[in-house]
Design brief:
The protein is of the alpha+beta class and about 100 residues long. It has one domain: Ubiquitin-like (UB roll). The chain is built from 4 helices and 5 strands; from the N terminus they run ββαβαααββ. It has a 5-stranded mixed beta sheet with strand order 2-1-5-3-4.
């Protein structure tokens, strides 16, 4: 299966879904800039993605870093930090929307 990113109305497909790689690493594999400024350590909070409710259960629960970086409202809307978000298995199709940067 694959991990797809939607950015500015265009779909970017990673070609595969690897459980050991976070969503940020999947984007980096296809040279897609999603805004990380801290190298994937969860400190900048700039690599935000939005997962549909059906895709949220296909990844790990929010980490302590995400609970600190994202508001409860953002988490409810499906926001996650790509560097903290890992697919559960390799046989998944996940779509991650990259919100416009402020």
């Amino acid at each position: 299966m694959s991990l797809q990113f939607l950015k500015n109305g265009q779909i970017y497909d990673s070609g595969e879904c690897v459980p050991g790689l976070n969503l940020l690493a999947h984007a980096q594999l296809i040279e897609l800039d999603i805004g990380s400024q801290c190298g994937g350590h969860g400190k900048c909070g700039k690599d935000r993605v939005i997962l549909a409710s059906s895709d949220q259960k296909k990844v790990n629960p929010p980490t302590q870093i995400e609970l600190h970086q994202l508001s409860a409202a953002e988490l409810m809307q499906g926001y996650r930090l790509a560097c903290q978000c890992f697919p559960n298995t390799s046989d998944l199709r996940i779509s991650a929307q990259i919100p416009p940067k402020e």
